[in-house]
Design goal:
5-stranded mixed sheet; D-Maltodextrin-Binding Protein, domain 2; alpha+beta; 8-stranded mixed sheet; Fructose-1,6-Bisphosphatase, Chain A, domain 1; 2 domains
């Protein structure tokens, strides 16, 4: 009979991988896990409480804020500010950085960027939603964190992860030494290791993109979609179209089974829709650690310079072979457009 290994036990076992952390890093991940369990509880009972629906305001992105967004944001900020491991937080729901100015955080080593509830437009339809987080070592010396602490490339992340609240609740994270997944066991209230050392297939059979915007896509994206739909037994095509509309859910499926998720530029979103700091960078870190690839169509996501807290970027992320094929189409048809 196999022994159940909890998230807390796993973190402690791996603590020796970070000799500089002296326990702070482990406590930080533990705090994120605790907040995730609280948010999961509310997500699961949302239909029974006055917590679904819109809050009557918009966030910094101009998107309608759902009540559960506010709750999730408050819970993660509270968890990250109380422990003393974090000196500043960036959240999708807040325009400016949230500085942590208390005695415990005076010499905190880390900053955290977070999307408290990804896919929240799907909340009322009972579709899977998620939390995405990214951890960096601060660049400032001491005191409250600064905006400069977040102006780092994704390659500088020390950890990243997501929580998916679905038929079961899973926390998936990486510290640069592979990807591991933990499923919440509600009977004991603990995340338990269920998916050790996750590896993506080099290819896959699905592509995920909102084809409702097809007419607004660049030619490279259109041609790649047509390639996915062509019949070719050697490459197992045509691929199936699978689009949930929640990045965490779409990427989680592709992480386990292979495939590609695309959110390209459109006429309405010429810089892309997803945010670099707290959506694309952490998801790219996870996928790369599992053997996949993440690109903006031409450049590695984690090598893009971060110039603003809520900076946007297009993203092509998933199985390496398929992402590389998408990049080939983007380069080819970008050259055609330039010549034209």
């Amino acid at each position: 009979m196999s022994k159940v290994k909890t998230l807390g036990q796993f973190i402690i076992e791996k603590q020796s991988d970070f000799p500089y952390a002296k326990g702070e890093f482990s406590r930080l991940l533990r705090d994120i896990g605790i907040a995730a369990k609280i948010v999961n509880r509310e997500v699961n009972k949302a239909g029974l409480a006055d917590i679904l629906g819109e809050a009557g305001e918009t966030n910094v992105q101009g998107e309608q804020v759902k009540k559960l967004d506010i709750f999730a944001n408050e819970q993660f900020i509270a968890a990250l500010t109380v422990g003393g491991e974090v000196c500043a937080i960036v959240s999708e729901e807040n325009e400016e950085i949230i500085t942590v100015d208390n005695p415990q955080s005076k010499n905190a080593k880390y900053v955290v960027a977070i999307d408290p509830l990804d896919g929240s437009s799907n909340i009322d339809a009972n579709v899977s939603v998620g939390t995405i987080f990214s951890v960096y070592r601060r660049t400032s010396l001491s005191g409250p964190g600064t905006i400069e602490d977040f102006m780092q490339r994704g390659t500088e992340q020390v950890a990243a992860g997501y929580v998916i609240y679905g038929s079961s609740t899973m926390l998936v994270y990486t510290t640069g030494r592979g990807v591991n997944g933990f499923t919440l066991d509600p009977s004991i209230g603990e995340f338990c290791l269920s998916h050790p050392n996750i590896k993506m297939t080099r290819s896959g059979k699905t592509y995920s993109i909102n084809e409702g915007y097809y007419v607004h896509f660049q030619d490279g994206v259109k041609k790649f979609i047509k390639w996915c739909q062509e019949e070719d037994k050697a490459t197992n095509r045509p691929y199936s179209s699978r689009y949930i509309g929640s990045a965490v859910a779409d990427i989680h499926r592709n992480l386990l089974y292979g495939g590609i998720f695309i959110y390209p530029t459109t006429a309405q979103a010429p810089k892309g829709k997803l945010r670099l700091l707290y959506e694309c960078n952490p998801l790219a870190f996870i996928v790369e650690q599992a053997g996949g690839k993440a690109s903006d169509g031409t450049k590695r996501i984690m090598e893009i310079d971060t110039k603003a807290l809520h900076q946007r970027t297009p993203i092509f992320i998933g199985s390496a072979d398929i992402v590389e094929m998408a990049e080939d189409y983007m380069r080819k048809y970008a050259a055609v457009e330039v010549k034209g």
